[in-house]
Design goal:
Layout: H1 13-23, H2 31-44, E1 48-52, H3 55-65, E2 73-77, H4 82-89, E3 94-98, H5 109-112, E4 120-126, H6 135-145, E5 148-152, E6 160-161, E7 164-165, E8 172-176, E9 189-193, H7 199-206, H8 212-216, H9 236-246, H10 249-267, E10 285-286, E11 292-295, H11 299-311, E12 317-318, H12 339-347, E13 348-351, H13 359-372
Parallel strand pairs: 2-3, 2-4, 4-5, 5-8
Antiparallel strand pairs: 1-9, 6-7, 6-10, 8-9, 11-13, 12-13
Helix pairs in contact: 1-9, 2-9, 3-4, 10-13, 11-12
The chain binds pyridoxal-5'-phosphate (PLP).
Pyridoxal-5'-phosphate binds next to helix 3 and helix 4.
Length: about 375
């Protein structure tokens, strides 16, 4: 069976984990956390990076930092993971779901503006599959209506829009290093802060509302509770694992993009079939090889494709169930119909994509898909 994902191991993970054990600093904000944070800062130009215990906690920090509270509305796509919504719901915000684009599962920048009210405090975007949203239109709207932008960049490491790294557009951006992502560290994430005025407070919220970071730098003489917060920081065990992966970032990305491109070349003929498509990448977006997916014509066909591939030894999976129709949210949802979001819920299938997937396996998968669609 060709699995759907397999964890890439660079080989230095256990070496760095042992180093952490020897140093004895196993809690957060030590040597490896700093190495990882600096790498992101240097490589992508984020103003400040803080490693967190998950992508989810980075989103929770974002909601806290923007002072989201009851009465505030936060607009986001429905076609995403529950974590995107939970972080803001936990602060008491009202979630306004926006439809996906007809081109790809990203938030539809055309449907955004009518959802904006005087209570809109933030727009949260997800760069689905690591393919950038329409940043020019979205930034223009945020500017015009004075709304903060948060990037859920969980898929988006090393993706770009107009040569600018994803995660550098929003006031804040959340990355994930969960096992299912391009770069993994068990459960781990990162908040990128692109507004210098939020950096001090971010450091404080990160360590349970204390000024521990400033204390350790010798900037204050007392270490005390100064704000609300939580234990958001990642342990050095995660950071050490992450560092071993980050040393191979270029190698990992190169291979993933290679695989993505083979899929895309081999399967592009699917676009000649009505109502079926491969990922539509807008001109300015540069892919990062996170997810390769196909859109089928209907739910039945999608499920048949998944079963067909499974019988051929290929593990393909569907993806998000739109949040506005989820068992948790549907009772309280009173918004618009989100037809594209519903369509991706019913028709999208993700293909295996991981570092150790061989070219032969990718061609094998493509051949099976072509025969399913009678394209050979
Ligand atoms: C993975 C993911 C998250 C959450 O990341 P964790 O590190 O698992 O907490 C949030 N949003 C999206 C879109 C994701 O895919």
């Amino acid at each position: 069976m060709i699995p759907f994902v397999q964890t890439y191991i660079s080989g230095n993970e256990s070496k760095y984990l042992n180093e952490v054990i020897e140093i004895g600093h196993v809690s957060g904000n030590g040597k490896f956390s700093k190495l990882c944070q600096n790498l992101f800062k240097e490589r992508y130009g984020f103003q400040r990076c803080l490693l967190t215990s998950s992508g989810t906690s980075a989103l929770e920090m974002a909601a806290l930092l923007l002072d989201i509270g009851p009465g505030d509305e936060v607009i986001m796509p429905s076609y995403t993971f529950s974590a995107t919504a939970n972080a803001f719901l936990l602060r008491g915000a009202k979630i306004i779901f926006c439809d996906s684009s007809s081109q790809n599962p990203n938030i539809d920048s055309e449907s955004l503006e009518p959802l904006i009210t005087e209570n809109t405090k933030a727009i949260v975007i997800v760069h689905y599959a690591g393919i950038s949203c329409e940043m020019e239109q979205i930034l223009e709207l945020c500017e015009k209506h004075k709304i903060k932008l948060v990037e859920d960049a969980a898929h988006a490491i090393d993706g770009f829009y107009n040569s600018k790294p994803l995660g550098s557009f929003g006031t804040l951006a959340a990355f994930s290093f969960h096992q299912t992502k391009n770069i993994v560290a068990g459960e781990c994430g990162m908040l990128a802060i692109n507004d210098s005025e939020l950096i001090n407070r971010a450091e404080i919220l990160w360590e349970n509302g204390t000024n521990r970071a400033a204390f350790h730098r010798g900037e204050v003489d007392k270490y005390t509770w100064t704000d609300i917060g939580s234990s958001f920081l990642a342990s050095e065990l995660s950071a050490a694992f992450l560092w071993a992966q980050l040393e191979e970032l270029d190698t990992i990305q190169k291979r993933r993009v290679e695989i993505w491109n083979i899929y895309d070349n081999e399967l592009s003929m699917i676009n000649s079939l009505e109502e079926r498509s491969t990922p539509q990448v807008t001109k300015k977006a540069q892919i990062n090889g996170h997810i390769y997916y196909l859109v089928c014509s209907n739910e039945n066909e999608r499920n048949e494709l998944i079963s067909y591939l499974r019988a051929e030894g290929i593990y393909a999976v569907f993806h998000y169930n739109s949040l506005h129709k989820s068992p948790y949210f549907k009772k309280s949802y009173g918004g618009n119909e989100l037809s594209n979001s519903d369509r991706y819920t019913q028709t999208l299938v993700r293909l295996p994509l991981f570092f150790n997937l061989s070219n032969d396996q990718v061609y094998y998968i493509c051949d099976k898909i072509k025969s399913f669609f009678n394209l050979t």
